[in-house]
């Protein structure tokens, strides 16, 4: 495109004379002009020429860039210039302007466009295998391919994008990132030697791209079914145990499983022996046992592999104490299924009662309670016996007195009559022993089951010294401790009292004393600053509610004798 700029306009004046003679005189004024020349098209980094034409001659030329990419050495002066096109990342247009200052001081200007064509050199893609150190790679090796040696030959170019693509090879290869400088994957399990071909495509900062391929040799594995039964486990009886073979590996990832117990001893039932992930409940045991399970894994080609896992089962630390008998769980308003995550850690979720349906019992009882009925000689009876003299607690080992039915009127009652009630205090300080710790001497309340006094020592002495065979096979009957008496309380019961009537029948009528308090051997220490110097009260368990209170030793309460190892409980 040819452009011209004129700042002055030529003016012609024709002057004519008047009068008798005629004549003429012409004067023409020509303005300054400048022509920058035709627009230029040039390939980047090549030379081109700028030549301006101006009038009148003798002035100065100044070139500058109006817009577009920068060009070295601009601005410049001169009528004719040789210029090198700049390096551009894309086709670009530089607008140049030339100013011409005439010798008389007039200034004119013109512009032209320089169309610069980008001439991108494509990047060079290079793949280098950098891992593993020893090749060909084998199963579980980490194979690493690197594109770090790829380059852009342009002087100021760079590689800005990477794309990896698997062209051939095992379909079981797994790659996390296919757009990084490096590609890595774990050598899969193979039944035959194979070659994986990877294609790398790189892109430079001008959008140019190129690709190259590389092959990776992958060695086969001697064993093609790798069974994995999991790590050995340490569990407790009654725990839910999971056997998991889902980490087994086959060539195509397809397989099925078969579990079997290979250890001796009682057979443990699995939820489903044909599932790769199955469960069982650890059984009730008397001592630590180890159970070994073998899984046989079969692939789609009917090839097999085996593995074993050992599960060590220990006793659950339930101790030799009974639970509370509470078997229900609750939300804010009603009973719910136990094990609820929104209302966790309830009584029924914990302890012996929570696994009561799994515990083997010698006798019978609600939830985890386990009682055996005994006859007058201390011999075991069947669970459905209706006549019995004592009850053995198979959890604590204690043997408990069973009261005789209420009969007669005090003081004319049998020695173990249900309605008999006693003072904790003794009537003679010289009659004290290690069992009864009291400094309180009390008169006999009336009525009383004995003619001499109503103290508990008299009851214990009478039972332990009865004529003939000892009561239930023993003469070591005593008053129970607080924890012992609480151990037979069933807080899950609904009714007039908290003892199971199947094993502890013949409870006294609450109207007799207006309570169901039963003595324990523990003296109550209370009063000013936590000390009662007279020690005049003892703890009782209220069998109507299961609560613990203290009672004056001079008052009367009921007694349930016990026999067994006090220190063990």
UniProtKB/TrEMBL annotation:
UniProt superkingdom: Bacteria
Domain Lcl C-terminal stretches: 390-563
PROSITE patterns: PROKAR_LIPOPROTEIN (PS51257)
Alphabetical list of Gene3D superfamilies matching this protein: Immunoglobulins
InterPro entries per the UniProt record, alphabetical: Ig-like_fold, Lcl_C
Protein name: Lcl C-terminal domain-containing protein
Organism this protein belongs to: Pseudoalteromonas luteoviolacea DSM 6061
């Amino acid at each position: 495109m040819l452009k011209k700029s004129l700042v002055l306009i030529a003016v012609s004046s024709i002057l004519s004379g008047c009068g008798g003679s005629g004549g003429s005189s012409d004067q023409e004024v020509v303005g300054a002009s400048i022509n920058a020349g035709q627009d230029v098209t040039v390939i980047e980094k090549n030379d081109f020429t700028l030549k301006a034409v101006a009038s009148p001659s003798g002035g100065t030329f100044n070139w500058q860039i109006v817009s577009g990419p920068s060009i070295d050495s601009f601005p410049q002066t001169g009528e004719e210039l040789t210029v090198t096109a700049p390096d551009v990342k894309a086709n670009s247009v530089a607008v140049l302007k030339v100013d011409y200052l005439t010798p008389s001081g007039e200034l004119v200007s013109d512009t032209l466009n320089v169309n610069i064509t980008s001439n991108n050199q494509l990047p060079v893609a290079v793949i280098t295998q950098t891992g593993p150190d020893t090749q060909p790679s084998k199963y579980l090796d980490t194979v690493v391919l690197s594109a770090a040696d790829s380059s852009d030959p342009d002087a100021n170019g760079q590689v800005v994008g990477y794309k990896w693509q698997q062209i051939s090879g095992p379909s079981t290869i797994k790659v996390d990132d296919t757009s990084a400088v490096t590609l890595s994957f774990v050598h899969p399990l193979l039944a035959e030697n194979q070659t994986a071909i990877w294609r790398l495509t790189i892109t430079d900062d001008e959008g140019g791209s190129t690709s190259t391929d590389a092959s990776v040799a992958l060695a086969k594995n001697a064993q093609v079914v790798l069974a994995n039964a999991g790590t050995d486990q340490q569990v407790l009886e009654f725990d839910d145990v999971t056997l998991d073979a889902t980490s087994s590996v086959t060539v195509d990832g397809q397989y099925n499983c078969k579990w079997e117990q290979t250890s001796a001893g009682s057979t443990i039932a699995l939820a489903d022996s044909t599932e790769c992930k199955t469960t069982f409940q650890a059984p009730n045991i008397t001592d630590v046992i180890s159970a070994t399970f073998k899984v046989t894994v079969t692939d789609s080609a009917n090839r097999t592999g085996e593995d074993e896992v050992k599960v060590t089962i220990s006793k659950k630390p339930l101790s030799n104490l009974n639970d509370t008998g509470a078997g229900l769980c609750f939300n804010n308003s009603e009973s719910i299924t136990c094990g609820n995550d929104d209302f966790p850690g309830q009584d029924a979720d914990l302890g012996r009662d929570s696994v009561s349906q799994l515990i083997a019992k010698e006798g019978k009882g609600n939830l985890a309670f386990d009682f055996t009925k005994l006859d007058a000689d201390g011999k075991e009876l069947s669970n459905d016996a209706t006549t019995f003299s004592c009850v053995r607690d198979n959890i604590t080992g204690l043997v408990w007195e069973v009261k005789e039915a209420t009969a007669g009127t005090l003081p004319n009652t049998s020695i173990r009559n249900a309605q008999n009630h006693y003072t904790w205090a003794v009537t003679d300080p010289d009659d004290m022993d290690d069992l009864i710790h009291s400094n309180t001497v009390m008169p006999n309340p009336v009525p009383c089951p004995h003619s001499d006094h109503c103290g508990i020592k008299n009851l214990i002495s009478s039972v332990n010294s009865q004529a003939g065979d000892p009561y239930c096979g023993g003469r070591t009957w005593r008053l129970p401790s607080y924890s012992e008496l609480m151990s037979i309380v069933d807080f899950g019961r609904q009714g007039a009292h908290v003892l199971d009537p199947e094993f502890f029948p013949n409870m006294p009528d609450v109207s007799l004393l207006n309570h169901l308090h039963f003595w324990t051997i523990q003296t109550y220490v209370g009063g000013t600053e936590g000390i009662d110097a007279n020690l005049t009260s003892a703890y009782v368990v209220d069998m109507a509610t299961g609560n613990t209170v203290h009672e004056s030793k001079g008052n009367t309460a009921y007694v349930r004798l016990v026999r067994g190892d006090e220190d063990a409980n």
